[in-house]
TrEMBL record:
Residue span(s) of domain Phosphatidic acid phosphatase type 2/haloperoxidase: 183-299
Source organism of this protein record: Levilactobacillus tujiorum
Name of this chain's protein: Phosphatase PAP2 family protein
Source organism superkingdom: Bacteria
InterPro entries hit by this protein: Autotransporter_pectin_lyase_C, Autotrns_rpt, PAP2/HPO, PAP2/HPO_sf, Pectin_lyase_fold/virulence
Keyword set, alphabetical order: Signal
Amino acid sequence: MKIRKQVWTKRAAAMLSLVAVTLPMVTNVTTASAKSKSTNVAALLKPHQADYGYLVDEYHHNLDNMTYMTPTSDPVIGVVNGFTKYWSKGQVVDKAMIDLNLAKAAKVTQERSESEMERSYFSDRRDLRYNLISGLGPYAPAFIKNANAQTNYLSMPSTPLPAKYSPKSPTWASPDSKLGPLVKLVNVAEGSPYSGINSPKHYLAMPRPYRLSTDVKPLPAIKEIMAHANPTSFDLPSGHTTAAFDSGIAFAYALPQRFQELVTRSSEVGYDRILAGRHSPLAVMGGRMTGTAIAAAVLNDPANQDIAKNGYQAAQSSDLLGSKDTTAQDDFKSYEKNRQDYRYRMTYGFDQTGDTHQAMRVPKGAEVLLKTRLPYLNDTQRRAVLFTTGMPSGYPGMDDAEGWGRLDLFSAANGYGALLDNAKVNMNAKKGTFNAKDTWKNNISGAGHLTKAGTGQLTLSGANKYSGGTTLQGGTLQIANTKGLGAGNVKLTKGNLKLATTQVTIRGQFQQAKTGKLTLSRASHLTIKKNAKLNGTLKLTQGHLKKGAKLITYKKHTGKFKHVQGLPKGWHVVYTKHAVKLAK
């Protein structure tokens, strides 16, 4: 193929304003019209078989020796086959899309900062697995020490490296170290013979962006290496991005306390490849898809179950989780920045040029990706979380047959996006981690009912709209948003319903049993739009005392609280026709 010096057009440059697009937190839920009948929900969550079968079953056919070179014989090729709509077998198919892809890459390389250049240099030169360590944040020093992690790339050179520069690198981390089981898990995720992307690269045969446009500026430190790279070292999917996601997800599986930070770092490695001029946005998007799918396949593989278990136990031990260094640098300490960065990097601002009405699909085995992050849910429930937090359809290359491209792992870590059916959450605090305490941050919609049981604490911090109602049967349900309880009735049978914000509204009926406890501050106000049936305990926490202040309002009520806690001597509550008030 003759290499073109410049292919992007003025039209493509004009479309770069798409970079500023911010995606919605939850999808255009194809789930919204789903009925709550279990048979319908089961059909929605059923995996969709691709022409190659299911990737988690067939990923052993993904071999770098290119034994299998079709979308039906190699499932990893099948995952990225949608990109052949734009580039196929070394040829442009959709020039406008390729022009836009190159324009985006060019803009990133032309506007990169010094710090971004250095970071992208490290992402380029360091071991693919070592690249994810920064995602550990305050746990990174302990990992480096207890896994004997090493790199010989500590600074970016001021002059370009020689074209053939390839020094011997140390082993990134030791499988014989204290954290050896975790190292082995990451190794099997990234280093298995079935995790390569040589076959899909050669199937698409899409040249690197700097070979197609001189406006894509190679990183100065490695420009000689890039200039002399093998022309058959193709763009899509990005190998570093693939490795970042399969390694990052393995780390996140073992240390789910850093789940969102680690997948954000995985996405950042992909962005670093664009910064360096090595890859285009479409290639990085494809790498996210292949890396996610390979990670799920590795974690589902029966041969790897002991490795996964031991890796998790090692990460949860005093050698890592118990060795937090609060003084360590954490590039991912901002939740809002992580969320914004991750979700932008899912699409890189491309418009929805394809069919926007495709139903969401959850690949077979994808639920394993949330196994340790949402340990109190069963596999079906985890599939429902992935389904209701998935991306809309129509983005370039993302609508693969199984659904790998539309999985939004960052949002999925925030719990349900919608309640398709009645969901019961049973949290056992004795098991620790997220079994003891978790927060759902999504704005939950749907017609289903939420039941919280067990001994752990679940916090709802989204502006929720689910209409099926809420039942608390045990533990603590903390409400951190005015609309946290959705639009249905609330039944407090047992446990502690705790209001963590000053204004909370129950849009339906409220019923409290004698074994239930309602906790709110003295300055809080619970609005019950319909009727209230009161019983059990009312606990008032610290706050300004004001005679006559309304704690609870309702249309009408029956019953009274059996116990009122948290008031100083001389203070009590009185019940009027429409309110519970403070009195002295």
